[in-house]
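Minutes, project huddle
Topic: does the predicted pose make sense with adenosine-5'-triphosphate bound?
PN asked that the exact inputs be recorded in the minutes so nobody has to dig through chat later. Recorded below.
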Amino acid sequence: MPNAKPDNFEISADPKRSLDFVRTIVKTDIASGKNDGRVHTRFPPEPNGYLHIGHAKSIFLNFGIAEEFGGKCNLRFDDTNPVKEEEEYVESIQEDVRWLGLTWEGAPLFASDYFEQMYAWAEKLIEDGKAYVCDLPLEEVRQGRGTLTKPGINSPHRDRSPSENLDLFRKMRAGEFPDGSRTLRAKIDMTHANMNMRDPVMYRILRATHHRTGDAWCIYPMYDWAHGNEDSIEGITHSICTLEFEDHRPLYDWFLDSLGVFHPQQIEFARLDLTYTMMSKRKLLELVVDGKVSGWDDPRMPTISGLRRRGYSPESIRNFCERIGVAKFNSTIDIQLLEHCVREDLNKRAPRVMGVMRPLKLVIENYPEGQVEELDAINNPEDPEAGTRKVPFSKVLYIEQADFREAAPRKFFRMVPGREVRLRYGYFVTCTGCTKDESGTVVEVQCSYDPETKGGDSPDGRKVKGTIHWVSAARALDAELRLYGHLFTQENPSDTAEGQTYLDHLNPDSLEVIRDAKVEPSLAGAAPGTQVQFERNGYFCVDVDTTADKLVFNRTVTLKDSWKKIEKKGGGEKGG
Ligand code: ATP
Ligand code: MG
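Predicted holo structure (tokens), as shared on screen:
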């Protein structure tokens, strides 16, 4: 089992670390003067869904390389399939890339802007006898290509003359044939060991309105024909993609060499997979459409917009991508590493505040009625610059239900009748009793305080084992807290038994809503996106659903970090 950090683990910003294999290739190319030392990469999403954390890996790799080697990185929408693509996705993708802190070269580019150039190149291949119009329906084309163990068979239309092919292809474009009735195919080798080389389809007839070109075209280029051409047109030097395209590279090479145009070098790397989630845009779309989540930006989604709403910062995502490195073998990363990265970041940045998830009334019997003291609380012990704030203390407070037990087990150091505990930034208090309702549920706890212990220290050096958080009942704000679990119940949701799908592994408890939490008054007016640590309860982020009456918080992550333990054991990567 490989270690959590692949061999070529590196943080690119740190020159002392070794380069990953992609950067090594780039560096070697610069040294040898290839492409006149130019480095030009691109991030080429298909606008058929929102970006996810896997895309972030590709984004940081492509933009990172451009940045580090003085090159450029394009943002190009690979919009060659009119059926699944939408303007909404074009907008969200730009927003997400910007939010991650990256700037693309010039304006965003669109593959659809190259339709005319690609069409001209297709005519050139036809004229050179390297492409032909095939009258077989798509299904028969597919069958005729054979299998891994069975060679394909030549299309009966394979030996048409270039002039006949040109005429037919022009008629295809002119709309003279019905959808799906003909294709343009590359003339390569129907017995080739690589299935991709068995006369692949370059164009299909499809009357669909494109989000940018409208109804100008009724033939659309296939991905394999289009993708390498797009890179060539833009002068991309290093065309970085995921491993599943390794088998397609010989075809891209064949197209570019046959055309005699600029030839980018394709480099494949392992895609990101995370436990307890998945990255397929098709499946993520299904979750959105079926209402299994509230939208693409549901905080449980692995999308960039979901992570943003959940409270992840761009820095934590970047840091995660740097830690996982770039390798040539597929593996699944433990989602706890991602959580570890956001904790690390928020630990440094998030102000500490007090909030009670499940309030229980605490009455300090010897505290003066009506008195309110403004006590000093430290904003962030990790950041001395963060200073202090005032929190109101009064006779009636709320504490966590979980912090009181009438009969306590041995290691319970919180509030128990007869025992003294510290109220954070407040006083030492000793529990004197509790009140229950008819059903036996504790509805109020009573205590007495020691006025000599203001600020949470006793002048006589007396120690207490427990410190608990609280809020003033009179001054607390109402809040809704949304707590999240993993979206799926098993590490690999796609690992399904006969008759099941990944949907059978959706976690029914992935969202818990606490509607009557109480938080300290310093949070009044906190804007959506504000990040805090509710002491002992986790890191939270103000949600866009917040109203004038009620603050709504998403829990970004709990405080308990199990990653360090996992890392020590040499885990972190699953399978692969
Ligand atoms: P899907 O198959 O779910 O539609 P995709 O890979 O086709 O995903 P694209 O929009 O084509 O999605 O991806 C844009 C870029 O992001 C591609 O260069 C692709 O290699 C990269 N990418 C997509 N998913 C991942 C991932 N999980 N890890 C790393 N890179 C990824
Ligand atoms: Mg794709």
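Observations noted during the meeting:
- The longest strand covers residues 428-436.
- The CA atoms of residues 358 and 555 lie 15 Å apart.
No decisions taken; revisit at the next huddle.
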